[in-house]
Amino acid sequence: MAEGMTLQEQAEVAREFLQGLLDELGLTASVDTRVIDEETVEVAASGDELGLLIGPRGSTLAALQDVTRTAVQRRFPTRTDRILVDVAGYRERRAAALRRFSEQVAQEVIESGAERALEPMSPADRKVVHDSINEFEGVVTRSEGEDPTRYIVIAPAN
After folding, report:
1. What is the β-pairing status of strands 30-37 and 82-87?
2. CATH architecture of the region 93-156
3. Which of 11, 55, 112, 156 could form a disulfide with 33 if both were Cys (CB 3.0 to 4.6 A apart)?
4. In what order do the strands lie in the sheet with 30-37?
């Protein structure tokens, strides 16, 4: 937890910032907060026609999260806990799709015996893939490359 500042107080600043941004953009949405663990909070906007805030593969959403975190850091400069921003449930839908895709690729790697490199992904997407594959027997994962072109290789387990 940031020094002298509760996670709930940080969440409220993030919520107010995101709501103000939505209002300025003329978008109608509700913004709620949810504490995920003792140092992580999610600020989620829900409403219609919010795709503009997600962007291709979540790129706009990632930028929105960075801007929101920066707004909180301006209020609490000593340190800010982890603030996640979600729009219209995108993150969970993306994670579910990545899990399905990862399991499909893992099955193909098991059947073929050949490793497979995936496209470059964000750190959050790579974490979903690594976590998903860790539950799969017969394959392992490793990350290669440098951000922003860092990618995962799924390989047969030795």
Report:
1. unpaired
2. 2-Layer Sandwich (3.30)
3. 11
4. 30-37, 40-46, 82-87
Please name the residue that has the structure tokens 């600020």.
43
Please say whether the structural domain 7-88 has been given the CATH code 3.40.50.720.
no
Exposure b/e, 3-42, CB count within 10 A at least 16 = b: eebebeebbbbbbebbeebbeeeebebebebeeeeeeebb
Q: Report d(CA 113, CA 109) in Å as an integer.
A: 5
Domain boundaries, the chain: 7-88, 93-156
Asked whether 83 and 10 are in contact (CB, 8 A), the reply is yes
Per-residue pLDDT of the chain (158 residues; tens, 9 = 90+): 445 678 899 999 999 999 999 999 999 999 999 988 888 899 999 998 899 999 988 889 999 999 999 999 898 877 677 899 999 999 999 999 999 999 999 999 999 999 999 999 988 899 999 999 998 899 999 999 998 899 999 999 97
